[in-house]
Amino acid sequence: MSVSPEAKTLPQTTENPTKEVLKEFWYYFSQNRGAVIGLTIVILLILMAIFAAFIAPHNPDIQYRDSFLVPPVWQEGGKSAFILGTDAVGRDILSRLIYGARYSLYIGIVVVFIALTGGIILGLIAGYFRGIIDTIIMRVMDVILAFPALLLALVLVAILGPGLINAMYAIGIVLQPHFVRLTRAAVMAEQSRDYVVASKVSGAGHLRLMFRTILPNCMAPLIVQATLSFSNAILDAAALGFLGMGAQPPTPEWGTMLSEAREFILSAWWVVTFPGLAILITVLAINLVGDGLRDALDPKLKRS
Amino acid sequence: MFRFLLGRLGLLIPTFLGVTLIAFSFIRMLPGDPLELLAGERGVTPERKAQLMKQMGFDRPYWEQYLTYLADIFRGDLGTSFASKRPVLDEFLTLFPATVELALCAIILAVSIGIPLGIFAAIKRGTIADQAIMGTALVGYSMPIFWWGLLLIILFSGVLGWTPVSGRISLLYYFPSVTGFMLIDSLLSGEKGAFISAVRHLILPAIVLSTIPLAVIARQTRSAMLEVLGEDYVRTARAKGLSPFRVVGLHALRNALIPVITTIGLQVGVLLGGAILTETIFSWPGVGKWLLDSIGRRDYFVVQGALLLIAGIVMFVNLVVDMLYGMVNPRIRHH
Amino acid sequence: MGILEIKNLSVEFDTVAGPFRALDGVNYSIDPGEVLAIVGESGSGKSVAMLAVMGLLPNTATVTADKMMFEDIDLASLNTSQRRQVIGKDISMIFQEPIASLNPCFTVGFQLTEALKAHTSLSGSQRQKRAEELLESVGIPNPKGSLTVFPHQMSGGQCQRVMIAMAISCAPKLLIADEPTTALDVTIQKQILDLLLTIQQDSGMALIMITHDMGVVAETADRVVVQYKGRQVEEADVLSLFESPKNAYTKALLSALPENATGDRLPTVQDFAKELTDAGISLEGVSK
């Protein structure tokens, strides 16, 4: 492939404009206090997941036989060794929550990866080639969207068998149509732009046009959608875990922990409260970042 | 308008066929032999199996099976539940009113609180009130509703003892089902306290199920209002010397509702998905719990039937919403 | 004594980058029955000034003035509900984008009778009748049928006629027209200007015409105010302005008229950069 002359003028090929764009982006992003708080929490969560082995006071799987359902330390009967208490088989809840962060982030990353790659490829193909391929792809996506996400994920897991990995595949497939629609719409909007026409005229091939020319210019909505899908994935995976169709015990996945804790809901509130709180905080932090990204990346909403 | 609807219907037919194909493939994609799965743990003898295979048509080519399946659907035959030996459609129709009652109450809550909150936040843009409302909405939007339900049970049933933990009405009351909606039936029954009992059973599940739609509707209303408030026609309305109530509540809101209606329509899927979780937590005898229980006991004809019916309902409601959208949007109505 | 008297009007906007002064100490005075044109390019603050009079600026704007009198009403001292008694009735305004300025969700008749409902004691059927007359007076064919039509079913020119009908529905004493012809086809522009002038002459109301088009000024105005970057650079009656412009910017603006083009290229204001700088006008921006 010969170097096309207009490649020099594309924004992503020169370094300084990229830096400028990033700087401008950070300016708008940091204006949003909620987004900065969300980002801080997300970074802390990532650190917590990476260094879980160092931070967690206990091994998450060890069952302390003398300490079943110990309440949190500040409540009567609490033990200083178990800050957030223990569960029904004597495992330290705090340590399980810290290790659980690994699963949630892992779920988010894998699911978004599946949905994003699949969605981008199908969306590019549909938007770029149009015609019958487009129709088929979009109708298939319509079919997926006709089912409530959780229902379809449940059924897919029933086919694939319960488990964390299968739950992630299922959620990835369910979330994919949003990326397909976004990519397709962006591609169709970009395709008539001058720079694409210029690339075409200078003889760029299909693949180069799709991935090097068009795709970088429709990244903004995809990034926002990826963030929102990340939090959706965590929620859905936790829901599957809660229903017994996701990660299986004794995995310290937060939804699975909740499912194990259900029978103690009226006797040991802490077993139920903390895993859910962990899910809520994580999802909330990611959604805060998502809102901030949307405001910073979407020029339509930028404050003048 | 007519052509707009016709276009929507045209898109619906291939989608519905796709849905039937998924429901059809579901049973055949399950790992292992469909019959052994359907027979459950007892297993079957080889002779009986061969007989059943033939009886159920599993020995014929797939396309033939699919056509038979389609024909069955149009006759209203969605198979039989292995657990109850009753037709899937009958079971569904018995349980569906409970889910509809719950979902309707949830969406009414979500709309009647979400839209005013969104309008208020948009008018007070940038103030503490706006930030508080939008912050709360984001928390609601991020809520794992199964946990939220448990939390409410701990608080209102456990600590305060205000609400019952499960079911639709206290066992003290018994009356025949007329409409299938407990709120209405309990009133019709004339039994003292029955209606109050039904309300107390309904309130927590309805709040839980409404949480995410409420947050989404409030956020969407706010952003639609903000967009509309900057439009030229709002300035024109102000220039006429109209009251702020009329400018915002009539000129702006009427336009902002157009995208909000689409959003409300999209919540139907969220509600039905959420119903699986909510009904499970509160032992609410609706289709969500039925579906999950059926997956648990491997009653796959039920799962297949429910898959088809729920997707069909989502599609139908979306069509209705499209119609509403066309009706509130003069640019489509008077084409 | 003029119908509208404004002294030392300034408007400042709060922006992310700090306060921005969009209008800096301008004066206007218009007599009953007079046509005043306010001319300038975009950013000259000509619309901002009139939106300030109407009270239609966003919350981020701070308006200050030594004097802001409409007849014997001090506009600056009115609260919002008192101002609503005046605007739409005695002072009304039409805008640049006629299609976007009409609400797409309501019929022409509904929007036309709204101001009547707010400011007059006419009954429903009287308002209906008045609306019909108004549409007829602005030259809408089939006025009765047009009442039930939605804005998107009309052309841009027709929408502007409807806007004019709305603006004059309560017989205002002052009509402000903010670039009323800019968004329209050239052939329609002339018709709308003629319509505005006819109405102005028949009713004897005062008319403020905001425009960037010297051609429009020449055709319509009695008196002209020229603005640049939020400041007033010249005020004169229309004849003396065209014959002997005093300010360098006005001269530059007049030279940019197509009629005055010499050679194959149209001069722009930028061509007069040196003269403007000499006259103390910076093209980089007066107030930043």
Structure description:
The complex is a heterotrimer of chains A (304), B (335) and C (288). Chain A has 304 residues and is an all-alpha fold. Chain A has helices at 15-31, 33-50, 52-55, 93-129, 131-146, 149-160, 164-191, 194-201, 206-214, 219-242, 254-261, 269-297. Chain A is elongated. The two termini of chain A are 42 Å apart. The relative contact order of chain A is 0.15. In chain B, α7 crosses α9 (194-229). The model of chain B has no long low-confidence stretch (mean pLDDT 88). Chain B has helices at 2-29, 34-39, 46-56, 62-74, 88-123, 128-141, 145-159, 182-189, 194-229, 232-239, 244-281, 287-296, 300-328, 330-333. Chain C is an alpha/beta fold and 288 residues long. Chain C has helices at 46-54, 80-86, 98-101, 108-119, 124-137, 143-146, 156-167, 186-203, 214-220, 238-243, 248-255, 273-278; strands at residues 4-15, 18-30, 35-39, 61-64, 67-70, 73-74, 91-94, 174-178, 206-211, 223-228, 231-237. In chain C, the strands form two sheets. In chain C, strands 7-8-9-3-10-11 form a six-stranded mixed β-sheet, sandwiched between helices. In chain C, strands 1, 2, 4, 5 and 6 form a five-stranded antiparallel β-sheet that branches. In chain C, a hairpin with a 2-residue loop joins β1 (4-15) and β2 (18-30). The model of chain C is unreliable at 284-288 (pLDDT under 50). The chains are: A mainly alpha (304), B mainly alpha (335), C alpha/beta (288). Chains in contact: A-B, B-C. The interface between A and B is large, with 43 and 45 residues.
Key terms:
heterotrimer, B: 335 residues, mainly alpha, 14 helices, globular, C: 288 residues, alpha/beta, six-stranded mixed β-sheet, five-stranded antiparallel β-sheet, 11 strands
pLDDT averaged over residues of chain A: 86
* Helix and strand run of chain A: HHHHHHHHHHHH
Instruction: Give the biggest sheet of chain C.
Output: 6 strands, mixed
Q: What is the count of DSSP helices of chain A, taking H or I runs of 4+ residues?
A: 12
Instruction: Round the Cα radius of gyration of chain A to an integer and report it.
Output: 23 Å
Residues in helix, % of chain C: 25-40%
Oligomer: heterotrimer
What structural category characterises the helix and strand content of chain A? mainly alpha
Q: Trace the largest sheet of chain C across and list its strands.
A: 7-8-9-3-10-11
Overall mean pLDDT of chain C stands at 86
Shape of chain C: globular
Strand content of chain C: 15-25%
Helix content range of chain A: 55-70%
Proportion in β-strands of chain A: under 5%
Reading the helices and strands of chain C in chain order gives EEEHEEEHEHHHHHEHEHEEHHH
The total of helices of chain C stands at 12
Distance between the termini of chain C: 35 Å
Number of strands of chain A: 0
Shape of chain A: elongated
Low-pLDDT segments of chain C: 284-288
How many distinct beta strands of chain C? Answer: 11
